[in-house]
Amino acid sequence: MAASMATSTRTTTKTSAATSTGTTTKTSTATSTRTTTKTSAATSTGTTTKTSAATSTGTTTKTSTATSTRTTTKTLTVTSTRATTATSTRTSIKTITATSTRTTTMTSTATSTRTTTAASIGTSTRTITATSIVTSPLTTSSVRASTGM
């Protein structure tokens, strides 16, 4: 008589989670102010007086008056403002979980009975029982019993 039983259980769990967050902020501000003021004032005043008198005695009078006024005003104002702000944030999360479980159980039982009867010799009975249990991966158990005469 022989009986064999094998049980195999295998469990596999795999979890993968990936999270990626990217944030980019860029701010650019440019301000340019240019002011130009040009003032030109030119005043020219000329006065000429010429008096000529001729007499028998001979007298000559000449008067010349010239007045020149020039005013120049130049104003240049340049204002430049530039602001640059850059912010970069990146977050990456990756989680991998793997679980593997494998259990194998094998049971084998064999029983052999032999009986021999001879009139002139006597009676002989021999019984062999072997039981083997194998559990993978770590445990191995074997039992063998023999009874006879």
Describe the structure in your own words:
This protein has 149 residues and is mainly beta. It is 0% helix and 89% strand. It has no helices and 4 strands. A 4-stranded antiparallel beta sheet has the order 1-2-3-4, with no helix packed on it. The model has no long low-confidence stretch (mean pLDDT 70).
Runs with pLDDT <50, length 5+? none
Query: How many angstroms separate the termini?
Result: 21 Å
The percentage of residues in β strands lies in over 45%
Rounded to the nearest angstrom, the radius of gyration is 61 Å
Summarize this structure briefly.
With 149 residues, the protein is mainly β.
Produce the secondary structure layout.
Layout: E1 2-51, E2 61-118, E3 122-136, E4 139-148
Antiparallel strand pairs: 1-2, 2-3, 3-4
Describe the structure using short key phrases.
mainly beta, 4 strands, 89% strand, 149 residues, 2 domains
